Amino acid sequence: MSLHSNALLTRDAEGLFWMARYLERVENLARLIDVTQTFEGPGGEAGSWSALVAINVDGERLAGRTIDGKTVKSFYLLEASNPTSVPASLEFARTNARTLRPLISTEMWMQLNVFHRSILAKTPADLEGDALSRLCRQIKEGVQAHTGITEGTFARDQGWHFYLLGRLLERADQITRLLDIKYHLLVRGSGEERRIVDLTQWNVVLRAAAGYHAFRRVAQAGFEPWDVVSFLLSDTTFARSAALCVRDIGWHLEQLRSRYNLRDTAGPLEKVDELRQALQPGSGMIEPGGQLHDFLDKLQLDLSSLGDEIGTAFFRDWRPLRRA
Amino acid sequence: MTPFDPFSAYDPGPYYCELTGPGATGAAGEHVRRQIAEIGLDVLRARAEMAESDLMALGITFTVYSDATAIDRILPFDCVPRIIPRLEWDLLERGVRQRVQALNLFLADIYNDRKIVKDGVVPGPLIFGNANYCPEMIGFPVRFGTYVHICGIDIVRDEKGAFCVLEDNARTPSGISYVVENRHLMLRNFPDLISGIKLRPVDDYGRRLRNAMDEIAPEGIVDPQVVLLSPGIYNSAYFEHVFLAREMGVPLVEGADLVVEDDRVWMRTTSGLRPVHTIYRRISDDFLDPAVFRPDSALGVRGLIGAWRKGTVSLANAVGTGVADDKAVYAYMPRIIKYYLGEDPILPNVQTHICAEKEGFDYTMAHLHELVIKPVGESGGYGITVGPRASKAELDVARAALVANPANWISQPMIGLSVAPTLTETGLRPRHLDLRPFAVTGRSTWVLPGGLSRVALKEGSLIVNSSQGGGSKDTWVLAE
Predict the structure, then answer these.
(1) Cα–Cα distance between A290 and B96 in angstroms, integer?
(2) Strand partners, B275
(3) For A34-50, what is each residue's pLDDT tens digit?
(4) B245 touches chain A (CB under 8 A)
(5) pTM for the whole thing?
């Protein structure tokens, strides 16, 4: 074996990180749109779609347009000129994959190439009626196929860790956004009626995160909303929980340090420790009466600065110029 | 029931046919003909369609830029293989080897002692006044005297079936990825055409190339770091760069991944800078180093040529090889071969008139309607006028261009290129084709069995370039 076979270009490390991030974003956006469609009860349409816009911070991009289901669905599912849309994210992912073709498997490239082409060919008819739910499922399954092919074919070297750092960071971020959608749909009124609507919405959130049955298994019969929050954020048995993602990010950073001798993991690891503490069930934040929205805001900022730390340490701002 | 024979209506006309001509593709040719009849054209067409959609899904494409849009195109694949019998290949291989050897000796000479000019074999101005002559190369030693590590030589056959060389490609010849991918495609989609026939394999190219790149690394480097330098994903041949990097098992780098410090080339990795020893560059000379060549080049690496001149890094191909594959220098190749090797060319040239010379200019002007007129500096089939096929207006344009700048042109007689049966909407029809074998040279030369057979898909067309509506065929070299 050549001495050089373990070298990874910084540009490729960054490409893997972002390819994974964009694909994770695509899957989650499909989940969010699916769940928004379900929230869209009689009379409440505008509210649920504007919540989706709010959590993606896309208000400005949609300025001057009527925020309704039609606009928002098209904005996220058809408009490649919108950088936060599914087609734009897939375009970014594919462009990254193109630069990574020497590293990724042929099967990974081929699936992404075909998936990209099929989604970019969608038309307004694909958003009508029950077609929307099918489209969301197609998108989810497209990313899941990518994930499976990657698991089965991608080399377990440095690049694998950068790929997973991207996916996990995005997944943690997205679960906070999914929870936030609930904040934007605060139930008015009081009493038993409010309680029932509220619980229904929490169930929808759980389903969107593929956590409904998982939650049922761990929850008490008479669960409270805060139990859902705590589950989605802190339960490390749940595949999409923020705490699990953050813990695994820490593991991948450790691997990069110990197995590949990358020396700049200290900054990101420090950030990981802070996040792990904040996500402890007993941390005080994830408790009844806590300010969920503020907490989620803070969490998103912390995750974003973790991403910056990783970028600075390995590729984005600082390209290491010292000799190996 | 005997199936309908799709060859019954096939007529190559006055041209030499690669499958049915007297060159004896033998039992293999018979097998292919029988299998095609057996499978039937409709099924072949359906399979060909699937094969092409596979190519699209696999991203085995080249990019065509028009206006602001980029379109990914496949190189159309024709499923009827081109078969080269063993003895014919022996001749081609020896001819290519001889040609590559002469090209390298010529380059070594014109960048050092200039004997061939002093002896009056090739005129000095043709070389030293050539835009591709690179003064930075003068007196600079390259390992094993190899300047052209990767060479593609375009070969055609005339009406009688005789091979001749149409063009040398000594800069960054492309097309090798299609040779290998076409074979994979053949095995996947047309296993019944190929089964049972003993062929020389084509999948050894990456290993051979990697060996050559290891060999030419600066002396004393035990485990050289080889990289492939690409202009990036927007280059039309990007797929081929990916292919080569993967087949060699080396990183595909862009200019921004490399940095020169202390006259050495380094690549930026997650664990810091790592030294680079051999660069197979798919960037033309002009763009390699903004400090030496085009200052506006964003594709290259500042200081690369300086490091190279210090001998800390090797480049394949060497800088300044373009002077050897110039269309005007081409006309002298038979004399160049004779001068250095004392041998006659194994593969003759096409007769060429150099319009920079009075004799050639006069002849060309007088016989414009019979000749193919080519600009000396272009590639990709651009700027060519085919006299016998041109309108009066087109001939007038060519004439004016010739008068305006004679040195920019050469002319050649029109060759009735050989044909091969090709699957078209109306059945099997003869289409003209050429052959580009690839030679890899480090310490010694290795020629990939076969090469890229490019086929002009338009009826009657003689221009096989992908940019001009060409396709390709799998090229079989028979092992016995």
Answers:
(1) 79
(2) B266
(3) 888 877 665 566 677 88
(4) yes
(5) 0.91
